[in-house]
Amino acid sequence: MSDLQTGEVLKRYFGHESLKPGQSEVIERVMNLSNTLAVLPTGGGKSLCYQLPAMCMQGLSIVISPLIALMRDQVESLTKKGVPCARIDSTSSAEEFEQTMASIDSGELKLLYLSPERLAEPVMLRLLKESSIALIAIDEAHCISEWGHSFRPSYIRLPKLVRALKPQVILALTATASKDTAKGIRKVFKILKKDHVQTSFFRENLAFEVIACPKEEKQQALREELQAAGRTPAIVYATRRGDVEELAAMLTASGINARAYHAGMPAAARAEVQDGFLSHRFPVICATIAFGMGVDMPDVRSVVHYHPPKSPEGWIQESGRAGRDGKASRCQLIINGDDRNALRSLVVAKQPGSKATEAILQNLFAQGKRAIISRYNLSTLNDVPVELLDVLLARLESDGWIVPDGGSWMWCHLVPLRWDAAARERILNGFPKQARDMLADLMASKQRVNLLELAGDDVAKMNRLLDVLRELEAGGEVRLKLSHSLIHYRIKRQPEKLSDLIDEMMAAFEQHSSHDLARVDAVFEMATSRRCLAASLVGYFGETLGGRCGRCSACGSSSPLGELPVSEVEELSLEELERIQAVVAEKRPALSSPERLARFLCGIYSPAMMRFRLYGHKQWGMLDRLAYDDVLAIARAQ
């Protein structure tokens, strides 16, 4: 297709006269069928790099993304523009799934958005292998790196799956990839170094500032920043949910209308806050990093990190939400030595203990030749963060212990669309007696049923049952409500000595902890150095800035910040020790190890704390002033 025709498509469907820097280079490579890596910083227009070629190339283009909300928003927007597109993810109904599959089969669809888990489903793979695939775009491609800041095990299998579909061209996209992460992406998708397109992370309109102040002065520093002229709309990032709510209340009481946003809020409440901020009904949103992904608000004048980001990737990505309209904006970091200690404690506290690691491995290997696991149960019952559980499962897979073997659902609520006896008899007619009896029980139940129990713990039987249920739903007779996903594995080999495998996994967790601590240290080294902040940040991504930016706090000062202020910490009192002993005496299963008790006392929102709502306990976070390692020593003594 000629440049003229491409320009017509750009204007007709997307309303643009021209492309942003980097977009034209990426699109040209894709149209020339060269596998490409596009590292375009936040706001760089990654989506157009696959949307435009999809409309220009013959065949179906597929976008793989883990961000369901982003997929939904893009499909809605593109549909309004007349682009034949659809999405299939965990929220898609059976009717939507069938319609989309029919559109793929007929060749009507130009652009299909899929979650990585959906791509791996056998039914989907079979259909796509029969289709002519023009382009496969892998969004959030940094998720493929175990050492990245958002690793997902479902991404490990993507290279093999993508190659099996034989697309004309592959495009990997990310907004944040360090040099090592980018190298890993190029390797697995067979992308030449010359086809690695990276636009500058430096944005002239952003002024980075670091303010060092004691803990008790941080709120005043935040108020002064937001009360200054031209500093709103503003996003204020804090680490914990309680901090977010406290800051929003404090600012509102000070005359700055602010709202809180975090993952612990109901979805409807989060949507209301997000919409209110985007429509300028209030000028400040105080949020955890749950806010911002896929949100494109051009006139954010300030991004304030009330607590420091966990990594340079987070710092530049979150700061990049300011000033997308090109106007002068500020990115402020308010820090002290307490923040560094708190961040390091969060990293160390995530480390699973040996007992938790042993419990997960036993659960997996004790099931025999096939294993079914619930990531939710393994995570919350053993108090292991999902991201580290995923690391463990990915290591077992890559080392040849286990092989993924599909998935299913634990719970099913079957709702007949007609309740009269004649309709039920018609629905059940034609099924063998055993299946008919099982389906009748499901229909009669007014609540969800455990599918695995119903199938007598027989996986093959459960899968056959699910096939029958989906057949009924596709026929419009019933509606299925499936919940609590399960992952199936084939066990290729059993460990001769479980303790050795436990040691291997503990070493892997230690590697990850060291890696995360190094990234925390990198943030503080940049923040306290006399080197230009902008140059330090872009340097982390392999870019060299021509000179000093002249706008950051380091450029405006002749000396580094030096030692950060640290609060004096009160030692453990006798009264607190008695309160801890009272908590231990409660014998709560969720606090059954020193590591869990320490997380509870530090007020760390770990999986078990969330599942059992221990954040509502009156002793929750009573020792949050102390470092996690110190609290762990206290917990072990109890």
Polypeptide structure, described:
The chain has 638 residues and is of the alpha/beta class. The protein has 4 domains: 3-198, P-loop containing nucleotide triphosphate hydrolases (Rossmann fold, 3-Layer(aba) Sandwich); 206-342, 3-Layer(aba) Sandwich (Rossmann fold), CATH 3.40.50.300; 369-491, no CATH class; 574-637, no CATH class. The chain has 27 helices and 17 strands. The strands form 3 sheets. It has a 7-stranded parallel sheet with strand order 3-4-2-5-6-1-7, sandwiched between helices. Strands 8-13-12-9-11-10 form a 6-stranded parallel sheet, sandwiched between helices. A 4-stranded antiparallel sheet has the order 14-17-15-16. The mean pLDDT is 88.
Describe the structure in brief:
The protein contains 27 helices and 17 strands. It is an alpha/beta fold.
Write the layout of secondary structure elements.
Blueprint: H1 3-14, H2 23-31, E1 36-39, H3 48-56, E2 60-64, H4 68-80, E3 85-88, H5 94-106, E4 111-114, H6 116-119, H7 122-129, E5 133-138, H8 158-165, E6 169-174, H9 179-188, E7 196-198, E8 206-212, H10 218-227, E9 234-237, H11 241-253, E10 258-261, H12 267-278, E11 284-287, E12 302-305, H13 312-319, E13 329-335, H14 337-349, H15 354-365, E14 370-373, H16 375-382, H17 386-398, E15 402-416, H18 421-428, H19 433-444, E16 449-450, H20 451-454, H21 459-474, E17 478-491, H22 498-528, H23 533-540, H24 574-585, H25 594-602, H26 607-611, H27 628-637
Parallel strand pairs: 1-6, 1-7, 2-4, 2-5, 3-4, 5-6, 8-13, 9-11, 9-12, 10-11, 12-13
Antiparallel strand pairs: 14-17, 15-16, 15-17
Helix pairs in contact: 1-3, 2-3, 14-22, 15-22, 25-27
